[in-house]
Design goal:
306 residues; mainly alpha; 80% helix
Length: 306
C-alpha cells in the first residue's frame, strides 16, 4: 500500500529544514526540525488549505454550521471507538460523519427537515452518544478525548497523518476538477439544473467531501473549535473580497495566518493548539471588520472633506 503521508513528508521536510533557522521562538522552530512536529505542522497546513476552499462554498450554500455538526458526529465516532476498544478512531469517525452528512443532505433536499434542524439533531445526539459511551463502557477515559474535543496537534500519529494527506489530496483534486460546477450549483442551483448539471449528485459528493475534511480538522482544532478554521477565515475574506475568486485567495491568506500564528503562540505560551488558532482567527476577523467598517470610512470621509 502506498504511504501517501511518507511521500508528502519527503517532499516537504527539506523545505521546512531550510526555513527552520529563520523561524522565531524557542519551541516553535522544532515544528520545522523534529519529525513528529513536522508531521503535525504539515497536517495542519494541508487541512487549512482545503478548508480555505471548502469554507467559501459552505458560506455560499448557507451551511456554515454543518462543520460544527459533523465535528461533533466525528467526536461521537472517536468516543465509540475508544469506549469499545475498536481502534482506528479516525476511520470510525470518517464512516459516521460521511453517513451523517448524506442523511443531513437528503433531509434538506427532500424538505423533510431544514439543514439547521438536521445539523442540530446530529450535533447533540452524537456528542451525547459519545459522552455516554465513554462513561458507561469506556471507564471515563479522558486523556485522548480532551485532545479530540479541544484540539491537540500532537495526536497526529503516522496513520492519522497518512489518512489526512490522502483525504486532503483527493479533496484538492476534487476542487480543481469541479470548482466551476460547485460554484454554479452553490450560487443558483435552479439555473444549474436547467443547464443539465447534476445538482443532487454534486450536493451529495460535496457533503461527503465536507465530512471527510471535518474529520481531518478535528485532529488539529478539536471537535468544539472546527468552525474557527472552517468558517472564520472564509467569513473574514468576504469582508475584503470583491469576487468569489478573490474570496478564495483571501480565505487562504487568513487561514494560513491563523494556523501559523496560532501554532507559534500555542508553542511559546504552552497552550492548546486548537484554542489558540481559534483565538487568532477570531482576532483577525475582528481587526479586519473594525478596519473595513470603522477606520476605512473615516479615512475616505476625511479625504473627501480635504
Amino acid at each position: 500500500m502506498i504511504d501517501i503521508g511518507e511521500i508528502v513528508l519527503k517532499l516537504v521536510v527539506p523545505i521546512l529544514e531550510i526555513l527552520a533557522p529563520a523561524i522565531p521562538g524557542k519551541i516553535f522552530p522544532y515544528f520545522f526540525t523534529m519529525e513528529m512536529l513536522q508531521r503535525s505542522l504539515v497536517a495542519a497546513l494541508l487541512v487549512t488549505f482545503v478548508s480555505g476552499f471548502l469554507g467559501v462554498f459552505l458560506l455560499i450554500r448557507n451551511l456554515a454550521l454543518i462543520g460544527d455538526g459533523l465535528a461533533h458526529v466525528s467526536f461521537g465516532g472517536v468516543a465509540l471507538s475508544i469506549a469499545f476498544g475498536i481502534g482506528f478512531e479516525l476511520h470510525v469517525a470518517l464512516l459516521l460523519s460521511v453517513v451523517s452528512a448524506i442523511i443531513i443532505y437528503e433531509f434538506q433536499a427532500r424538505e423533510i427537515l431544514s439543514g439547521d434542524a438536521s445539523i442540530g439533531i446530529f450535533l447533540t445526539g452524537m456528542l451525547a452518544l459519545g459522552l455516554v459511551s465513554l462513561r458507561v463502557w469506556g471507564g471515563g477515559v479522558q486523556n485522548d478525548i480532551e485532545g479530540y474535543l479541544f484540539g491537540n496537534i500532537l495526536l497526529v500519529s503516522k496513520d492519522s497523518f497518512n489518512l489526512i494527506c490522502t483525504i486532503s489530496i483527493l479533496t484538492i483534486i476534487f476542487f480543481l476538477v469541479s470548482h466551476k460546477i460547485l460554484l454554479i450549483t452553490s450560487v443558483d442551483p435552479l439555473v444549474a439544473q436547467v443547464q443539465g448539471i447534476p445538482v443532487r449528485t454534486t450536493g451529495l459528493i460535496f457533503s461527503v467531501v465536507t465530512a471527510a475534511t471535518v474529520v481531518c480538522m478535528v485532529q488539529v482544532m478539536g471537535a468544539l473549535l472546527v468552525t474557527a478554521l472552517l468558517v472564520t477565515p472564509s467569513a473574514t475574506s468576504q469582508l475584503v473580497s470583491s469576487s468569489h475568486r478573490s474570496s478564495f485567495l483571501w480565505s487562504q491568506i487568513f487561514g494560513f495566518s491563523s494556523v501559523l500564528l496560532g501554532l507559534y503562540y500555542s508553542a511559546e505560551l504552552e497552550t492548546g493548539s486548537g484554542s489558540m488558532i481559534a483565538l487568532v482567527s477570531a482576532t483577525l476577523f475582528g481587526c479586519v471588520a473594525v478596519f473595513q467598517f470603522l477606520i476605512r470610512p473615516l479615512i475616505f470621509s476625511s479625504e473627501n472633506v480635504s
